[in-house]
Amino acid sequence: MASKIQEFTRSASEVDPHDREQVFDAFRRWGYLQAQLDPLGQYLPPQPVPELDIPGELAQQARRYYCSTIASEFIHIPDSSRRQWIQERLEAEPPTPDQHQILDLLLKADLFEQVIQSRYLGTKRFSLEGVTALIPFLWEVINHAADRNAQQVVLAMSHRGRLNVMVNIMGKSPVDVFSKFEDVDPRSVLGGGDVKYHIGATGAFQAASGKSVNLHLVSNPSHLEAVDPVAMGRTRAKQIRLGEDGVEKVLPVIMHGDAAFAGQGIWAETLNLSLVPGFSVGGGIHVIVNNLIGFTADPPECNSSRFSSDLAKRLPIPIFHVNAEDPEAVIRIAALALEYRYTFNTDVLVDLIGYRRHGHSEVDDPTITQPLRYARIKDHPPLYQIYAQRIGVDPKPEADRYQAQLGEHQKKATTAKKMPVFAQLPEYWNKYKGGCFKTEYEVETGLAPSQLAAIADALTTYPADFAIHPKIKKLLEQRAEMGHGKRPVDFGMAEALAFGSLLGEGTPVRLTGQDSQRGTFNQRHSVLVSTVDEELYVPLSHVAPGQARFEVYNSILSEAGVLGFEYGYSRDYPETLVLWEAQFGDFANGAQIVIDQFVSSGEDKWGLPTGLVLLLPHGYEGQGPEHSSARIERYLQLAARDNMQICQPSTAAQYFHLLRRQANRAWRKPLIVFTPKSMLRHPDAISPLSDLSRPRFLNVLPETEVQLPQRLLVCTGKIGRELRVERKKRKDDRSGIIFVEQLYPWPEADLAAELDRHSAAREIVWVQEEPANMGALWYAVPRLRRIARGRPVLTVKRSPSSSPSTGSAKAHEMEQKTLIDLALGSKTS
Ligand SMILES: Cc1ncc(C[n+]2csc(CCOP(=O)(O)OP(=O)(O)O)c2C)c(N)n1
């Protein structure tokens, strides 16, 4: 019979040893500190807990439930019905497991590693030995998930045991894995590809019930835990695609290392997305594949608390620790975790505690750093042997047979000619292209004035009884005028028109970032808030009947976690225009791993394209070193082989066309956009409505006002707009101003044509706001020289600096004035 859980702690002397609830409460609360969790008995010794010094039979009984090879932390969950649910199951007799199945899985997991060890001695594989119970764990989770209607499981894991999971869970052929060790067909991956323990895979799992579950193992960089938000974003995209019961149909199972779990901030960020609207996936199964070591570091060096799992206590979710050498306990927790996730739709964490049989990789000798532990491990039998003995089975005949079979597979691999392919892109990728740009991918993006007016009307209308904020009322009135050509279009409206048009054409739009609903610069206002009851109204969700889904979320204050999530989302929803916005462009450096390891190189390493858009506010406005630069130089350095597009639209219309181009081209490439701040409302950056009816985005904006320039100022972004205003003021008819709106792929032909058009110009000047060692200078100047036809290419820029800009608004103004004087004058270097 379920009982009320005490909300406070009693000392042992206050507990009546004959009161079952009082006794059990103490163990439910503190029992996890005295469980037997380390198979080698070196770490996690039972901790003295005075509250548990309770005599009597009931205490013995409670100890069996709470201090065995399973330890449970769940009293921190505020919802008593959930705690009740857990304790009822932990205090029940465990179901009888299929012991032969467990043995079979353990044997296969161990022997797979042993065969690689013997055939490819000294080659890195990151063996799972010591925690091979992961394989029956996953087997049990996926089987139960199949019973709960799961159609897909998104798996994420780092190096450790990855190959084992590929073979023993994902159904990949051992021949294919061995041929990766043979490194066949190196020519196919010259300059690209990835190591075997990072690549992704797709596969099918045949559940015991006969159902098939699709598995997706997410491609993973070396950077530990970076894959976590990506897997979550992928899961959410798959769930949205499947509709209402998507949360049931798609389950994420994320594996972590113990050192990485405790240490990596991106995981803390991801965990915090768990219950947030727009990011929740209805919970996932998280497993710490805990070998109680991180490379050469012992647990006390990796973590400030007893368990590496402690970070997860920030959430109201259960944490189960289980000794990986008790496979039946592991199986029991697998089933319990899965049922909990499906019952309460939250994350569940399982800390699977074993050891690591070899060094960090197989080329490391762990006896140098942990001689005592490894002396003990040397004599410790593999788990399948321990378990076989426990259940009274002689495993040798089956072990010999399986070993011989793997030997055959290995032999076959030595004659393989082709690099095996482990992953298949889903059919919704069929209509999209990766690779290098081809002109046939170009699309027209302009819209007729009548179309723009209709969208504008929808975007500026709200229910008659909606209590609108007076400032927003005015804004919408102005936007309505913009949509009818009665006033120039600003960036905010250009974006709304781009989104609105795409939604009406059937392209979903998803935008996230800190404060993205309103917009950091008070420019977006995509969600209207009633002044009476704070009810929300989203005009972009009311553009046209049958329109596509519009999502805009204010994200948690995270860059790496949220950008990783959106990258993952874009990977599984290429039909959606997915945009992530940094509050200021330089904050994206907190997500540098996601940018380097996924966005810019994912296609090269794993053949996985994405059309993700990064909106990075950029521009020197005297706001100090941290709010000025989105670090154009970094993105340009990452650019090669048409891996992404790097653009800085300098008018509202250009932004409109750029967004529409990104959605409507079949070419799916990341788009990095340096977006405006003060330029949002710069009089020279607003556009006549007719510019939105132009055919397309222009990679280069030509000089339009000066007929015969003697010098050509080439620039990108806001500085060009400032130069144009100043030029007018000075009545300067010597300087032509050309905007490079797309920096990468470098629009060489367009730019060359524009430079050639002005043959009277004697010099070309690259002008930028950024210091000499930043911005696009180093990238643009040699490229300009190639097309300058012998004319000198000079530069105007700030002096080299270690930080992007001055902290003084007045100093900024002085510097900016000097830049403009230099650019429009003749003193250039
Ligand atoms: C972000 C990051 N920092 C450093 C490393 C180098 N590195 C690779 S594995 C490893 C130890 C990981 O330990 P743990 O998380 O416990 O996983 P295990 O290898 O023991 O399974 C380290 C430090 C890395 N891959 N990623």
Commentary on this structure:
With about 850 residues, the protein is α/β, with parallel strands linked by helices. The protein is about 35% helix and about 15% strand. An 8-stranded mixed sheet has the order 1-7-8-6-5-2-4-3, with helices on both faces. Strands 12-9-13-14-16-15-20 form a 7-stranded mixed sheet, with helices on both faces. Strands 17-19-18-21-22 form a 5-stranded mixed sheet, with helices on both faces. α1 (about 20-30) runs parallel beside α2 (about 55-65), α4 packs antiparallel against α15 and α8 (about 225-240) packs across α20. The model is unreliable at about 1-5 (pLDDT under 50). Bound molecules: thiamine diphosphate (TPP). Thiamine diphosphate binds near residues 224, 257, 293 and 360. Thiamine diphosphate binds near residues 222, 294, 295, 356 and 360.
Can you summarize the main beta sheet?
8 strands, mixed
**Which structural class do the helices and strands define?**
alpha/beta
Helix proportion range: 25-40%
Low-confidence stretches: 1-7
Calculate the terminal CA-CA distance, rounded to whole Å.
85 Å
H/I helix tally: 28
**Strand count:** 22
Mean pLDDT: 95
Q: Tell me the overall shape.
A: globular
Strand content: 5-15%
Q: Over all CA atoms, what is the radius of gyration? A: 30 Å
Jot down its keywords.
seven-stranded mixed β-sheet; 22 strands; binds thiamine diphosphate; disordered N terminus; 28 helices; about 850 residues; eight-stranded mixed β-sheet; alpha/beta; globular
